[in-house]
Amino acid sequence: MSRGAGGFLFLLMLVLGIVFLAKYFQDVAVKPTPILYSQFVKDVEDGKVKSVTITDHEILVTFTDPKKGKFSTYAPSDPE
What we know:
The chain has two domains: 1-30; 32-80, Signal recognition particle alu RNA binding heterodimer, srp9/1 (2-Layer Sandwich). It is built from two helices and four strands, in the order H-E-H-E-E-E. The protein is an alpha+beta fold. The protein starts with a helix and ends in a 6-residue tail after the last strand. The protein has helices spanning 3-30, 37-45; strands at 33-34, 49-55, 58-63, 70-74. Strand 3 (58-63) and strand 4 form a beta hairpin. The radius of gyration is 22 Å and the shape is elongated.
């Protein structure tokens, strides 16, 4: 293998490693923090919730205070 090809492979591996690490840490940072359903209800009643996204039983919560970030909780099962 020539010296130029070895340098190119090193740079390619370095770039792929950086992309992998950036993607890994981006995925970790996006996950919302879990909270209790009762705390979610209290925060809604207190006017602290900006938006809510409900998917099946999962509830994603965005607060009016941007410093709090995003949280998630699960709706209790309704037998009816």
